[in-house]
Amino acid sequence: MAEHSSKGYKEVPVRNSEESTIAEEEKEALFLGYRRRQTLYGEPLNPEAEKAWDELMPVGRGFVNINNDTALPDQPGLDQSLPQQRAMISVFHQLHCIYMTREGYYAAREGNLDQVNAAHLMHCWDYLRQAVMCNADTTLEWLPAPPNDRGSTGWGYEHTCRDFDAISRWAEENRFKTTHGIH
Predict the structure, then answer these.
(1) What's the rounded Cα separation, in Å, for the pair 174 and 45?
(2) What backbone phi and psi angles, to 5 degrees, belong to 65?
(3) Distance CA 113, CA 80 (A)
(4) Where is the composition biased (Basic and acidic residues) (predicted)?
(5) How many other CB atoms are there within 10 angstroms of residue 5's CB atom?
(6) DSSP string, 7-45
(7) Rounded to an integer, what is the distance from CA 71 to the centroid of its chain?
(8) Which pLDDT tens digit goes with each residue over 15-59?
(9) Domain extents for the chain?
C-alpha cells in the first residue's frame, strides 16, 4: 500500500481509492453547543468568530497533491497518465460550504442580497445534503420525556469521529497552495 504520510496514525483509504491513504485515527467527541455553551461558530459575524472559522482550514485550504504512483481506480477527474494529481479533501469543501451558507444568511439578513451568490449556495446545500447522507452518523440522541419529546438539540452526545487535526496536518503536509482562510 502506498504511504503518503503516516506519522503514526491508523491509515484509512481516501474515498474512491484503494491505495492512497490519509493518516487519521478515530476518537470520541462530545458535541457541545447552543444550550450547554455557545460556540464561536454559531455566533453572528464578528472578528473573533471569523478568525475561528478561518482557523478551521489548514494552510492550503485542503487542496493537496496526490502521487499517482499506484494504480488508482478510474474516478471522475482523475488522469491516470499524470504522475501527480491535485485534489481537494471533501471535509474542507464541506466546511467552506457551511461557511458560505452562514455568510449568505447574514448578508440576506442585512438586506445585502447582491452579496449572496445563489448558484453557489444551491450547490452547497445539495453538496452538504449528500455529504451528511453519505457519512450517516447513527449516534442515538435521546429525547426528553413526553410531552417534550418533539426533538433533540444534538448537544451532549458522544460521537465517534475521524481525527480532524490529523487530517488537517496531512493536508498541510501535502498542500500545493499556501492560501489561508475558509473563503
Answers:
(1) 31
(2) -95, 135
(3) 43
(4) 1-18
(5) 15
(6) TTSPEEEPTT-SS-EEE--EEEEE---TTT---GGGSPS
(7) 27
(8) 444 444 565 567 777 676 555 456 788 888 899 999 999 999 999
(9) 11-173
Give the three-state DSSP class for 53.
Answer: helix
Taking the C-alpha atoms of residue 43 and residue 47, their distance in angstroms, rounded to an integer, is 11
SS3 97: helix
| Sequential DSSP letters for 130-183 | HHHHHH------PPPSTTS-S----TT-EEEEE-HHHHHHHHHHTBS----S--
The Cα 30–Cα 155 span in angstroms is 8
CA distance 169 to 25: 12
pTM of the model: 0.79
